[in-house]
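Final report, results section. Input specification for complex C-07:
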Amino acid sequence: MNSKGLQKIFNPRSVAIVGATTKTSKVGYVVLKNLLDSGYEGKIYPINPKYEEVLGLKCYKSVLEIKQKIDCVLIAVPAEAVPQVIKECGEKKVGGIVVLSGGFEEVGRQDLAAQIKEYAKTYDLPIIGPNCLGIYNPYSKIDSIFFPFYKMNRPKPGGISFVTQSGALGSVMLDLAAAYNIGVSKFISYGNATVLNESDLLEFLGNDKKTKTIILYIEGVKDGRRLFNVMKRINKKKPIIVLKAGKEEKGKKAAMSHTGNLAGNYLAYKAAFRQAKVVEAKDVDELFNLMRIFSQPLAKGKRVGVITNGGGLGVLITDAVEKEKLELIEFTKENEQELRAIIPSYANPRNPLDMAADASVEMYQKAIEYYLKNNNIDLIVVAILFQTPTLDERLINVIGEAVEQKKKPIVVVTIGGDYTEAYRKIMESKGIVTFSSPNAAVKTLRKFVEYSYYIRCQINHLCEFY
Amino acid sequence: MNSKGLQKIFNPRSVAIVGATTKTSKVGYVVLKNLLDSGYEGKIYPINPKYEEVLGLKCYKSVLEIKQKIDCVLIAVPAEAVPQVIKECGEKKVGGIVVLSGGFEEVGRQDLAAQIKEYAKTYDLPIIGPNCLGIYNPYSKIDSIFFPFYKMNRPKPGGISFVTQSGALGSVMLDLAAAYNIGVSKFISYGNATVLNESDLLEFLGNDKKTKTIILYIEGVKDGRRLFNVMKRINKKKPIIVLKAGKEEKGKKAAMSHTGNLAGNYLAYKAAFRQAKVVEAKDVDELFNLMRIFSQPLAKGKRVGVITNGGGLGVLITDAVEKEKLELIEFTKENEQELRAIIPSYANPRNPLDMAADASVEMYQKAIEYYLKNNNIDLIVVAILFQTPTLDERLINVIGEAVEQKKKPIVVVTIGGDYTEAYRKIMESKGIVTFSSPNAAVKTLRKFVEYSYYIRCQINHLCEFY
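Structure output:
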């Protein structure tokens, strides 16, 4: 793999957009417009023989007409025209290529795909796609996602990277990250994987210093053995969270007509994920949950402490903790005495600690401090009914300060309408991991604890989770 | 049960608030303030011997001091003082009582609870609570929920009613309903169920003409046999969606210290739910999903048709359909020809129908019309990536018109940040059922199909789902 080329694609000093146009609903327009609006500071070359100028920039007939070096070429022309463009890119010795256009393997045009492969080999060109959304790097501002900003926000720079076979799936994850102000390192939608595949891209992210957590969405994979080895190696350094689609028979057919790849036997994938100890998500919402939990320090054990001002939430979390085979600690007599000094007289000093609907910010603060100090608690779940009159935004700071200590994983469960959702977003933007469902929170913690055990075992030669 | 009293509680011409106060963080203040701000048109009597006046209203020493009839008494005084207040309410012959205060069975004060029961019997008083959030009726504007409006919106009038043992759980559901503009009929948080229990309240809602769907959250139940019979009878007319908490051992203990009720054996509950054919939700988010799906016409079968502009979403939905044992129909050659006239040339006329990222509103419209006409499709899932440049809000009208025909259940799957979420809320307020997760959508449809089969079997002497 030409990984130097991938570096150039993600940090390009110059970008050419083949298929640039003035037609506002076309990919070639939206991508160019986005680059202009994003603050990208490199040189931009629109390419389209039909125009002299597009969006105020001089337009070129082909990449060969440009004298300067080109690091990254984004292609958005009809499938039939793509191979010739790639040939010219090879002759021009560009850094790398992203083919956004569809109309290849997924509709039976293996002939066109073969030509792309051939040119990639001849000219040693790194090519992402075709049939994809391409790339986004908030650090360099390179962005080939052909969705307008007002419809899809772009997230800020951070540590989460994406390798996704589906542009749709990837873009909704990015959009959610932006809405909750969660930072992203690299986004790669790779579509048909005609040249570069998921393993190549994982290798790239494994070496990318800014990437701390990797999200992988796959449908069909050509070389499963290689993917397994790559995942296993990288997952030890950076958690890989994987969502596999095309599990069932009809899902496989749908995958074939989506990106032209065989989805294979899910049981084999599942076994590989387990053996490589990567974290498997079962759905989009779980992917979003798992993606965020890895901002927390690894768990030292599986003993959970719960704090709440809504008894029902406490009961639901307790049920989930037991179902997921985590452990709800029981307080000692001594603990109970210590807790009585914190909580109201009518509340019970038990775990979950239900401080009832008139719990104050100060009570939460004392309870969280107590849970942080208590060495029998490995994970803290703070369930908050923000609707009560006695709580206010100071609670966000209290939790934020607890999270910043990085002593134990802390998560928040809070559910509600506009007011609560606004507070939830503020919390997320401060690095507090929040959930709007007790079960989702605990399921996420369970998978996080499993990964924590795995990593700690590498270091300490300890134990299995079960 | 004194059901005339319940009528009075929910449609009171006069309300007394015992424990009304000027202290802004107290229940007695928030409830009075909310009633004044809500547009409630009946007479309001603050009661507290300490004040001459509260919030501009004359304040009374006790209910006995008031000459006029009182339909509904809301009590927010310390537990010790509650029995005496109830005794006076009995002497005054009020319509009914809601006790908001906590400090009874849940903290071992069975003695106080016994006194409440005794007076309820002596004076034939319907009493909701104690240890609860009480009631809300958007039609009459009666509202005892002691959470300020700016922290928790109240939903508009509609057909969904709640019977919930947990105030927290109930309030987050109401708050979500308000955020998505979903209409509600009656809300009842009943806490310790000292006098009126879940069965009494279900009976009341069974007879309430405005109630179309019933949400039930229970932890512990005293008379399981009666609940089973009541559920079974009412569920045939109006779907009952139940969430049971306190399933696991520690969850049961948490439930006991929450509302002072034994949570019992979950397997027995589960069997009862199955036999009564009520719809069981496994978590808060599933409860929110199931609550909305019953606005759709009952399903005639389990054959699913999917339309999308995001291939990955189509694959994930397909996987879920198969996993949930619904049926993804395969199109005939004839269907395929008909579809080719609608979709772009590069798309495949298959189910899921993936019209790719440049699908237009018009394509969606034609596809939905085709799916509505096709008699082999019982349920329609429309997955939308609103982030693409070619879609706009006209699609909401297209789907709204399809839903209004009430021919088949239609649901939307759409996931994203602020823009998509805004559109999702608009859709919900127009009666379109939306989901932000493919799995959640299909799981909800599965349970909806099961209920549909059950009801259709009653009528047609047909079939079981399996």
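Chain B has three domains: 1-130, 152-295, 303-460. The CA atoms of residues 104 and 111 of chain B lie 8 Å apart. This concludes the modelling results for the funded period.
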